[in-house]
Amino acid sequence: MDFITLDHQQVLDILPDRKADSHKGDYGKILLLCGSRGYTGAAALAAMGALRSGAGLVYLGVPESIYAIEAVKLNEAIVFPLPDADGRLSADALPQILKLLPNMDAVLFGPGWGQCEGTFLIAQEILRTFNKPVVVDADGINLLSGRIDILRERNAPTVLTPHGGEFARIGGDNSLDRQVAAEGFARQLGCILLLKGHNTVITDGSRTYINPTGNPGMAVGGSGDVLSGIIVSLLGQGIDPLQAAACGAWLHGAAGDICETEIGQYGMLPTDMVQVLPRLMK
C-alpha cells in the first residue's frame, strides 16, 4: 500500500505565497457554521484555527442564543447570529446561509452543532447546492449516519474528518487495516477522508497521505475543532483539497508536538496549539 509522508519543507512548499500587492480577499472567504448552547468553545476554536492558518476573511455563523458569547471571544472573525431553536441552528437560518454561499470559497459545518432537524436540513442544503469545497466535522458527520449517500451527488470536494467512532457511524469498517478502510470508503463515496488517530490517514481513494506528527497530549476536547478550522482555511486559500487536508493534519500535529516539548502532554490545550501554529508557517 503506497502512501506519502509530508515533512515541514513540503508543507511550506504547498502553502501559497503571500504577494506584496495582495489583500484579505486574496486569501479566502470562508464560512464556518459551528456551535450550540453549551458548546461555544467549538466555534471559537475552529475560527481561531482558521485565522491562525492564514484565512483572509472568516465568517462565523452561530445560533442567536450564543452570539454574544462568541462575539466577545473573537475579535478577528466576522461573527453573526442565526435563527435557532433550543440553542441549536434551525432551518429558519437557511435563507441567510444560502445568501452568503455564492461569495464563499469554502465552508465548514458541524463542530459543536448538536443533532436535530434544523442542523440536518442545513447540512443537506449546503452539500446539495454549494459548488466549492466543504469540510464536514463532528456532529456534521454524525448527522450523515444512514444518509451518507448524499455525498455521491456532490460535484465539488468534500472533506470528512471522523475519528474511529464517527467513521463506524457513517459506514466505515474499523475491522480492516485503517488505510485500506479509509481508501475504500473515500473511493466509494467520492470524498476526501481524514481518518483521525495515531498516524492519521488522509485519502481520496487513489492518493494517500499518512501523517507523522502529533502526540497523545492532543487527545483533549476542542483539538479536532482547531484541525477542521485549519483545513477549511487552506481550502479557502486555493490549495488542492487533498493536499489541504494533509497539510492541515501535519500542521495541527506539529503544533501539538511543539506544545508537548514546551508544556508537556498533560497540560496542553487546543488554545496552546492555536498560539504556536503560526511558527510553523513562516
Structure description:
The relative contact order is 0.16. The strands form 2 sheets. Strands 3-2-1-6-7-8-9-10-11 form a 9-stranded mixed beta sheet, sandwiched between helices. It is α/β, with parallel strands linked by helices and 282 residues long. It contains 11 helices and 11 strands. It has a single domain (8-12, 27-276), classed as Ribokinase (UDP-N-acetylmuramoyl-L-alanine:D-glutamate ligase, 3-Layer(aba) Sandwich).
Determine the mean pLDDT: 97
What is the top-level CATH class? Answer: Alpha Beta
CATH topology: UDP-N-acetylmuramoyl-L-alanine:D-glutamate ligase
> Cα distance, first to last residue?
33 Å
Number of helices: 11
Low-pLDDT residue spans: none
What is the CATH superfamily?
Ribokinase
Q: Biggest β-sheet, characterized?
A: 9 strands, mixed
Dominant shape: globular
Q: Order of strands across the biggest sheet?
A: 3-2-1-6-7-8-9-10-11
Any idea what the radius of gyration is?
17 Å
Q: Can you give me a brief rundown of this structure?
A:
This protein is 40% helix and 15% strand. It is built from eleven helices and eleven strands.
What's the arrangement of secondary structure elements?
Elements: H1 8-14, E1 29-33, H2 40-52, E2 57-63, H3 67-73, E3 78-82, E4 84-85, E5 88-89, H4 94-100, E6 106-109, H5 117-129, E7 134-136, H6 139-142, E8 158-160, H7 164-169, H8 178-189, E9 192-195, E10 201-203, E11 208-210, H9 223-236, H10 241-262, H11 270-276
Parallel strand pairs: 1-2, 1-6, 2-3, 6-7, 7-8, 8-9
Antiparallel strand pairs: 4-5, 9-10, 10-11
